[in-house]
Write a structure and sequence with these properties.
Helix content is about 15%, strand content about 55%. The chain is mainly beta.
């Protein structure tokens, strides 16, 4: 009887340890949605505010994502952009998942985040590097880095000829650790 009780206690401790471990998940999610000027002012000098509203699915399940960023108003040199590059100088966002969990992200300072715009073909390629800043539900205490890569095409221009609204499609990839709950158990199976 002592042996069975000791074995049961050891099994419970082992299972608790396995579920408490932080798992590093490789994330791959695809999305589509829209983007345009934002009424939210991040008060960054020499910038204008832009936001994206997208929805998709992937490794972490169905999600919506809204981010707001301040983009420089003057183009900057870039070794990775063959068009005109407007760096993102500040920003962040929130991913909301079907189970109600929220994942908070902030634009990574000093990264090559920004918009590469081809004015001839009217297409933009945007890359944003986000640091995970925790969240709620299964993302409480989460950390990692996600890359948001999109292709945007204009749909609507204002009376001055400035871009006002566009379509966006792309992917979010990266690594996240500290994910709890059901998702963590599913990844181990």
């Amino acid at each position: 009887m002592k042996y069975a009780a000791t074995l049961a206690l050891m099994l419970n401790v082992c299972l608790a340890t396995v579920y408490a471990q932080q798992t590093h998940l490789n994330v791959k999610m695809s999305f589509s949605g829209n983007g345009g000027s934002s009424a939210i002012d991040l008060k960054q000098p020499n910038s204008h505010n832009v936001e994206e509203n997208v929805a998709g699915s992937g490794t972490l399940g169905p999600f919506t994502f809204r981010d707001v960023k301040a983009a420089a108003t003057s183009p900057q040199p870039s070794s990775t952009c063959s068009g005109v590059f407007f760096p993102s100088v500040a920003g962040g966002g929130i991913l909301r998942f079907q189970d109600g969990s929220l994942l908070a992200v902030n634009l990574k300072a000093g990264s090559d985040s920004g918009d590469c715009i081809d004015f001839v073909h009217l297409v933009a390629h945007c890359t944003l590097i986000f640091e995970i800043n925790g969240g709620t539900g299964r993302f409480q205490g989460a950390s990692g880095v996600l890359t948001y890569a999109e292709t945007a095409m204009p749909v609507l221009f204002d009376l001055s000829g400035n871009f006002a609204l566009g379509t966006e499609t792309g992917a979010i990839t990266g690594t996240i650790s500290g994910v709890g709950g059901e998702q963590e158990r599913e990844q181990r199976q």
